[in-house]
Amino acid sequence: MQQTLKIELGGTRTQLLEFQILDTPIAELWLERMASRGSYPLDHPNRFYGFDSPQQEQTRAEQQIQQCIDTINTHQRIIDRPFTNAHDQDCLNYLHNIFERYHGLLDQQDHDFWNGSTPAVRQALAELNLAVHRCESLRGAKPRMVCTWFGMPKIKSLSKDLLQDYGQLSPRFGSVCLNYVEIGKTLEDLAKDNDQYIGEEAFRPFSHYSADFVVRFYTEAPPVIQDRLSKMRAYYKQHEDWFHSRGYTSFDDVRLQPLRFPVAQLVETMPRDMLYSSIAQHQHVNRVWIE
Length: 291
Hints:
The chain has two domains: 21-51 and 143-267, no CATH class; 53-141, no CATH class. The model has no long low-confidence stretch (mean pLDDT 90). The termini are close together. By secondary structure, it is of the alpha+beta class. The protein has helices at residues 25-35, 54-75, 89-103, 112-116, 119-136, 160-166, 187-193, 222-238, 240-244, 272-280, and strands at residues 4-10, 14-21, 42-43, 48-49, 144-149, 156-157, 175-178, 208-209, 213-216, 262-266, 285-290.
């Protein structure tokens, strides 16, 4: 019997979204993680992108990032560069590097700053990552929503065979895809951001997965995909020695490709313009469950 992912949006007035779970090995692995998420709270239930006006999106992103910086620096001034604006990519790269250095990788949070800080400061440091990505998403923001579960261990990883066989460059409109859960950036992210802070902590290809997922309410045309690949190839060539020394001896390595991993598909019950409008009015996740 095919299973269904259901997501209830909104507050007192709600909207229900339904998704048919795919019959693939990756979807089965994701369902196993979903079944284990019960003791972890839904993290940031308002992670919606691209449904408001550009100015509203920018104001929200800049307020969030400044609040994170202020909270972190009240404990110790580790961010000594003033935040400029949401479109200063070099500043965003710097802040993302701060997050990587002081937060730690996945469950390896052993930095002295992390160990000596309060829960509020730790939360601000973790949210700095989300704030940076919210700023970055302003560039041609694609409508999407993200669901993550706070504290859920990121201990499962996908094999290279699964990456190769089930990864897609451009999933369909309404696809539910595994969310990137690494602490770091993929080659795609490094190239898009022209990130010159590349290092062991910065580069993390897609490997681990969790119950976390992103719902994509858009599709991408082939020219967009080709432009992305061209920029990635140029960045790879620029840093070829660095990648070669770490075992990535070909740009065509599946671990370097900008693949997405669908696990479910939206059941469309209304015209898409009405769907966009309705989601824009219900940008909060009340509940997520499987039937």
